[in-house]
Write a structure and sequence with these properties.
Length: about 70
């Protein structure tokens, strides 16, 4: 579904980010070859998320991080 959404939006994986709060979200992003960003405010285990992704306190911080990159 992630790659299909990118195609429909005419976007590339290189410029895509997926924000999630569980290890399943992070694994889905990695499988789709897009950059995962994790949230500490959700259902996932923060230490587990840190092993695979940058972790932010909330979605606002994650989106600001992306905005600063572009």
């Amino acid at each position: 579904p992630i790659i299909l959404a990118l195609k429909r939006l005419n976007k590339t994986q290189e410029n895509a980010y997926m924000i999630g709060d569980t290890i399943l979200d992070i694994q889905a992003a990695i499988s789709a070859n897009i950059t995962p960003l994790a949230l500490a405010c959700g259902y996932g285990n923060e230490n587990e998320l840190k092993a695979y992704s940058m972790v932010f306190l909330n979605a606002y911080e994650a989106v600001n991080y992306i905005a600063r990159l572009n």
